[in-house]
Amino acid sequence: MRITSKGQVTIPIEIRETLGLLPHTEVVFGVEGDAATIRRADDSDQGRGERIVRHLRRRGTVAMSTDEIMALTRADE
Fold first, then answer.
1. The model's pTM
2. What backbone phi and psi angles, to 5 degrees, belong to 37?
3. DSSP letters of 41-56?
4. Is 63 exposed, middle or buried (0-12, 13-18, 19+ CB in 10 A)?
5. What three-state secondary structure class fits 29?
6. Pairwise pLDDT comparison (77 vs 12), residue with the higher score
7. Which residues pair with 19 in a beta bridge?
8. How far is CA 63 from CA 13, 54, 71, 75, in A?
9. Residues with Cβ < 8 Å from 16, sequence gap 6 or more?
């Protein structure tokens, strides 16, 4: 595995699955002797479901009024 010119490396899926590293998971890098370590940040100690819910609760980016959204949901009536 090679490090890119930007210092990036792909974490193999087996390791991501074992550690529960989902997209947007905060991680912490460390050094132990001559080895690099990676672990989830302390705020990532929540379960997978809690992280997904936290992600879904973010502010939306769609610039629609409530009336416009309601009209879309009632378009078939």
1. 0.48
2. -120, 155
3. -GGG-S-HHHHHHHHH
4. exposed
5. strand
6. 12
7. none
8. 36, 21, 14, 19
9. 22
* Phi/psi at 18 (5° precision): -60, -40
Number of neighbours of residue 2 by Cβ within 10 angstroms: 7
Query: What's the pLDDT band for 76 if we cut at 50, 70, 90?
Result: low
Per-residue pLDDT tens for 27-74? 899 999 999 999 888 764 567 787 778 778 877 777 888 898 888 888
Q: Which residues neighbour 64 within 8 Å (Cβ) at sequence distance 6 or greater?
A: 72
The single-letter code of the amino acid at 25 is T
| Helix, strand, coil % in the chain, rounded to nearest 5 | 35, 15, 50
Indicate the domain borders of the chain: 13-73
CA distance 63 to 77: 24
Locate 42 and state its tokens. 């302390």
